[in-house]
Amino acid sequence: MLSAGPTPRVSTSEWEFTITTEAGQAHRWSWSDLMNLTNEEITTDIHCVTKWSKLGTTWRGVPLDTFFEDIDTAADYALAYSYGGYTTNLPLDDLLEHRAWITWEFDGEPLAPEHGGPARLLVPHLYFWKSAKWVRGIRLSFEEDLGFWETVGYHEYGDPWREQRYQGD
């Protein structure tokens, strides 16, 4: 799998996930908190901008809807950020209504660090660079801030069915 930099090594004892609202209010979950949330198995196809797809992949994770249950926001956009500094932008609507998860397992095995472990974002209806490896948090805002790949020419949305690989697609 491609990465924007070196593979971060994050222990589950140090891992934390934070959602920060547009007003600056931070909501935090530890690894233990994540493991105590109701999780589910997700079977879905994934699509890479480099023109490959993998059909019927199986993941275990918690829908982002669960994290947003007690968050009051009027934001339209989210910027996911990762250990190691990677970022990617998404409309908030693409993270809700059972369209995105925080996952820690792939095909019945813990996610390897090279594939985003201990936890990664999974947004399977968009190109896979939107499924941020080593996810650390999400910042909400009223305006869209471009993420790492988007600032170097990748499409700001990344719909595989419209082949939105690069700006202008």
TrEMBL record:
Listed transmembrane segments: none
Ranges where the Oxidoreductase molybdopterin-binding domain occurs: 5-149
Top-rank taxon, per record: Bacteria
UniProt xrefs under InterPro entries: OxRdtase_Mopterin-bd_dom (IPR000572), OxRdtase_Mopterin-bd_sf (IPR036374)
SUPFAM superfamilies: Oxidoreductase molybdopterin-binding domain
Gene3D superfamilies cross-referenced by the UniProt entry: Oxidoreductase, molybdopterin-binding domain (3.90.420.10)
Protein name in UniProt: Molybdopterin-binding protein
Annotated organism of origin: Virgisporangium ochraceum
Taxonomic path: Bacteria, Bacillati, Actinomycetota, Actinomycetes, Micromonosporales
